[in-house]
Design goal:
By secondary structure, the protein is mostly helical. Helix content is about 50%, strand content about 0%. The protein has a domain of about 100 residues. It is elongated and about 65 Å long. GO terms for molecular function: copper ion transmembrane transporter activity.
Length: about 170
């Protein structure tokens, strides 16, 4: 009996037993069909290096050389965060000095426009920090160490005028 003309959209299928259904030809999200080349998503600490995806599906580590390049990139990203923080501090210090040298009536207007750029730098720092947090949250030990090494390198290169203590763990 042909039921193709019947509308079944109003029926509740949540209680149906789907265990007997064949899902063998469902493919792997356009990645060649099997489970061998898929991103692993860990919610527990791991040192695994196969099928590691860092934040994006496109950043898929499949080899030892890919892992080394990715770890170096993570180190550079974490160091770059410290560079952005240092650049923001330099900008803020220079703008404050410039504003202080202006006549009193011009200081308010200059302060308003400078504050907009400081707010944009602050937003960029927050975005950057949260993206690094997502990198860290791969729960992969190698990636976590790379973030810490990058923070060290970045602070060593760019943090000469900054206290080593931070008031917020995320940014």
């Amino acid at each position: 009996m042909d039921h193709s003309h019947m509308d079944h959209s109003h029926m509740d299928h949540s209680m149906m037993d789907h265990s007997a259904m064949d899902h063998g030809n469902m493919g792997g999200n356009g990645m060649g069909g099997g489970m061998g080349d898929r991103c692993s998503m860990n919610m527990l600490f791991t040192w695994e290096t196969k099928n590691l995806c860092i934040v994006f599906r496109q950043w898929h580590v499949r080899s030892t050389s890919g892992l080394i390049i990715s770890l170096l990139l993570v180190v550079a990203l974490a160091a770059g965060y410290e560079a952005l923080r240092a650049a923001s501090r330099r900008y803020e210090n220079s703008v404050n000095k410039r504003i202080e040298s202006l006549p009193r009536r011009e200081q308010v207007e200059a302060s308003k426009s400078a504050h907009l750029l400081k707010a944009a730098l602050y937003a960029a720092q927050n975005f950057y920090a949260f993206m690094l947090m997502l990198v860290f949250m791969t729960y992969n030990g190698w990636v976590m160490v790379a973030v810490a090494v990058g923070a060290f390198v970045g602070y060593a290169l760019f943090g000469s005028t900054t206290s080593s203590t931070k008031d917020n763990a995320c940014h």
